[in-house]
Specification:
The complex is a heterodimer of chains A (552) and B (256). Chain A is an alpha+beta fold. Chain A is 17% helix and 26% strand. The longest helix of chain A has 24 residues. The radius of gyration of chain A is 38 Å and the shape is elongated. In chain B, strands 1, 2, 3, 8, 9 and 10 form a six-stranded mixed beta sheet that branches. In chain B, strands 4, 5, 6 and 7 form a four-stranded antiparallel beta sheet that branches. In chain B, a hairpin with a 5-residue loop joins strand 9 and strand 10. The chains are: A alpha+beta (552), B alpha+beta (256). Chains A and B meet through strand 2, strand 4, strand 5, helix 4 and strand 22 of A and strand 2, strand 3, helix 3, helix 4 and helix 5 of B.
Chain lengths: 552, 256
């Protein structure tokens, strides 16, 4: 009986210790309806101590903030779904139920693409369009006093914008202040003017309309292009200096014949600007147009003495090319838009890299995720260089991955197709925030540490351990394996036994081995012996050490 | 004794003076409101009074809200360039999509602006009433709801107050409106679109928006903790809307 009680107490004691250890090992995550401290974000998985407590001020029934020991997606209150703004007809994906309801939305436990009320289409609002839901279109049309004109068949914003047409603009002739005048508007707008006549395809400056509007030498910006302006202030045809006195060009709506197909940047004579070719109508700055004061101003950029086209993006770093991927270095995506260069930094710690390509001499760049994390786990060269899975490179000569073979011996695990040892390392080494200790930087760098065991063959009777440690020539003469790890070794310096049977994959010198090891180490991350992004070495540490062990 | 010639001269002077008085009377009759409104700023039209009193307050509220991601006092924010920029989408975890924090951004901004101008509204209407009282008007003011609307190209604030002024005649003024030329409506739509991408894919290509909207500048500035600051600038009027997002963040090094 006593024995049983003792066993029971013993079990309780052990289970108690286990529970305490487990609790101490990792704080379980709670679904906090709201976090306590900044950021006081809604519906986050965090430790219980991080969850807000007290009354939720947004709750209509003065409920307490909730926190449950499970992930938010498993709770009813923080489950993510689609939040519908019934008034505006807009939909927001991945919104927790509580956040949606608190803000007066209608929450649905469905993905946005599965909800009919969230499907987008093209809403025509006069001369403008909006790519919105039907509800939003109705609301926008009502706000502007227009009939709803919605096309659900258009499924992309670009298609919607491209559908804007202004072909039905023409000369609307009417009387004002006892004068026959004219405005360039649509037929619908013209009908709203009492006693008006609409002349499709005509300009107000047409002589046969006998209005008070006539040709002029002034220009005006409209729809990002330069237009001739008639004496009534209407935009006529696109500015073409050669046609300033051409009666036909001032009579009918026509396309210009001066277009160079490249946006007519800073052209004195042609106003056919094109945003995507890099020009837009602006008041002239340096180049004065032949007529008027508006010009197709170039939107291209000059940066660091180089010219970039409008819309071009390219890569840059905060360091010299020779110091790429050094500690502190970062990639940037540069953009030229509207004559201005802006900078988009890629993610810190080189978790993103910038890649650049060129299409018809037009530079395109982007920040992409640096998939370096599983490089060092790859044991085959083929897997290492799989560009669809990771961004790694293969360094031949030494494997940082080791395994025990059937005999219990530690052997290289990283091999290429010819069974030559090698290591898989990131193409662009990552950085670590060593100052906060997050990210296991030392552990990652430690993967690059290597031990090279040099074997010497010395006589038990006549061999001298002391001489082995002090006499380089003696050491070279007796080394039989991995002689390249002896400081100062060059091809041919080793014993005959080594040199005659030297594996072809062995580095030819100590310097070559040292260089290879440093390459592997520094490629893994901000590890090893390298300069930072400003070109300074860090704390000077001996990274190659040696010791002698006598083995039987 | 007055001579005959002298008497004729006096009559002429009196006639001239009479004509001048009549002319002055006609001028005053024709231009009465303008003359007095120019002479005294306190008797201006009630709509103009409210416009002058409230416009700057509304502009400031719009600017503050726009610089802080849509809230006057954001709860979840990132400090950037001395501004507390609200997270419109946030996750505190690595490798996870963000959770939307403001699904009804336009309505939220409208209510934030409204709350921010509430005190000034009461104060302006009260001071306007007092101003008319001191000018001898009998006033009857009925407060009503104030509504802020974000509309394409403009922000309209409608004060549902009613003011009746009586001084001999009675005049009734209602639905005071202030219209600001500001395309915050479009900025909010774009912010919602960006948040939609952020929550699904954790990122967005900002050049897409600059290709769609030629007068818009979009900047994305990634911070050390993975937070992204988005700055939308209207190139026409330099109005700015900025907000923060944290989604699909990769940690430095390897963290499980």
């Amino acid at each position: 009986m006593n024995k049983n009680i003792l066993i029971t107490f013993g079990m309780i004691f052990l289970i108690g210790i286990l529970i305490i250890n487990l609790t101490a090992a990792a704080d379980p995550l709670y679904c906090c309806e709201r976090l306590k401290n900044n950021p006081e974000a809604w519906c986050q998985d965090a430790t219980r101590a991080e969850c807000a407590t007290g009354v939720n001020p947004l709750s209509s029934t003065s409920e307490q903030y909730k926190s449950v020991a499970t992930l938010c997606q498993s709770t009813s209150y923080c489950k993510s779904g689609t939040c519908i703004n019934a008034m505006e007809g807009s939909c927001m994906p991945n919104t927790p139920q509580v956040v949606c309801n608190n803000n007066g939305g209608v929450w649905k436990d469905k993905a946005i693409e599965d909800l009919d009320e969230c499907k987008l289409g093209c809403c025509v609002l006069g001369n403008q369009v909006a790519f919105v839901t039907l509800t939003a279109c109705k609301m926008l049309s009502a706000q502007q006093g227009l009939l709803t004109n919605y096309n659900s068949g258009i499924t992309s914003e670009l298609e919607c914008i491209a559908s804007i047409t202004s072909n039905d603009i023409g000369a609307c002739v009417y009387e004002k202040d006892y004068q026959k005048t004219c405005t360039m508007i649509t037929q619908t707008d013209c009908k709203a003017i009492d006693g008006s006549e609409f002349h499709e395809g005509f300009l107000c400056s047409a002589q046969q309309l006998t209005t008070n509007c006539g040709p002029s030498k002034e220009t005006i910006c409209k729809d990002e292009k330069v237009y001739f302006m008639d004496t009534c202030g209407n935009a006529a045809n696109v500015y073409d200096a050669s046609k300033v006195n051409n009666a036909t060009y001032w009579t009918y709506i026509q396309e210009p014949s001066c277009d160079d197909g490249n946006g007519n940047k800073n052209s004195r004579t042609c106003g056919a600007c094109d945003y995507f070719s890099g020009s837009m109508c602006k008041t002239y700055d340096q180049v004065k147009p032949t007529y008027g004061s508006s010009i197709c101003s170039s939107l291209d950029c000059v940066y660091n003495g180089k010219n970039y086209l409008h819309g071009e993006t390219w890569c840059a770093t905060n360091t010299k090319p020779s110091l790429d991927n050094s500690p502190g270095s970062r990639y940037f995506r540069m953009m030229c838009y509207n004559g201005e260069v802006t900078v988009e930094p890629c993610a810190e710690f080189r978790n993103e890299i910038c890649i650049q390509d060129q299409v018809n001499n037009f530079k395109v760049a982007g920040c992409v995720v640096n998939r370096w994390q599983d490089c060092i786990n790859q044991s085959s060269k083929e897997d290492c260089l799989d560009i669809y899975a990771r961004d790694c490179k293969w360094i031949t000569g030494y494997s940082i991955l080791k395994i025990k073979n059937a005999d219990g011996k530690v052997v290289d695990a990283g091999k290429d197709e010819n069974n030559v040892s090698g290591s898989c390392v990131p193409s662009n080494s990552s950085g670590f925030d060593f100052w906060s200790g997050e990210g296991n930087g030392p552990e990652v760098c430690n993967m690059g540490s290597a031990q090279c065991v040099v074997k010497y063959d010395v006589s038990i009777i006549f061999g001298s351990r002391r001489r082995l440690q002090t006499d380089l020539n003696y050491r070279m003469a007796h080394c039989v394996q991995n002689c390249y790890c002896i400081e100062g070794y060059k091809l041919g310096d080793g014993s005959n036994k080594y040199e005659n049977n030297r594996p072809p994959t062995d580095p030819p010198s100590y310097a070559a081995w040292q260089n290879m090891m440093n390459n592997i180490c520094t490629a893994i991350g901000d590890c090893g012996n390298k300069k930072n992004y400003l070109g300074y070495f860090g704390e000077n540490k001996t990274i190659f050490t040696s010791e002698f062990i006598k083995k039987p | 004794m007055i001579k005959k010639g002298e008497k004729g001269g006096q009559v002429a002077i009196f006639i001239i003076i009479a004509i001048l008085i009549i002319a002055l009377g006609v001028l005053i009759y024709l231009y009465y409101p303008k003359l007095f409104s120019n002479a005294s700023p306190t008797t201006k039209n009630p709509s103009t009074y409210i416009q002058d009193c409230m416009e700057e307050t509304i502009q400031n509220a719009v600017k503050n809200v726009s610089l802080q991601g849509g809230s006057i006092n954001p709860g979840a924010y990132y400090i950037y360039d001395n501004n507390r920029i609200e997270y419109l989408c946030y996750t505190n975890q690595y490798y996870r999509p963000c959770v939307v924090q403001q699904p009804m951004l336009a309505q939220h901004i409208q209510s934030e602006i409204l709350n921010n101008i509430k005190d000034a509204t009461t104060s302006c209407f009260n001071s306007m009433e007092d101003s008319y009282k001191t000018q001898g008007y009998t006033t009857d003011m009925k407060p009503g709801n104030t509504v802020v609307e974000l509309l394409p190209d403009k922000i309209v604030t409608t004060f549902g107050y009613e003011l009746t002024l009586t001084k001999g005649e009675t005049a009734k003024y209602e639905d005071f409106k202030i219209v600001l030329n500001n395309n915050l409506y479009r900025m909010v739509s774009i912010a919602n679109s960006i948040i939609g991408w952020e929550t699904l894919y954790g990122d967005v290509d900002i050049t897409t928006y600059m290709n769609y909207y030629h007068d818009l500048k979009v900047e994305k500035i990634k911070q050390m903790d993975g937070t992204k600051i988005y700055i939308l600038t209207d190139r026409n009027d330099e109005n700015v809307f900025q907000f923060a997002s944290r989604s699909y963040v990769f940690p430095p090094g390897i963290t499980v």
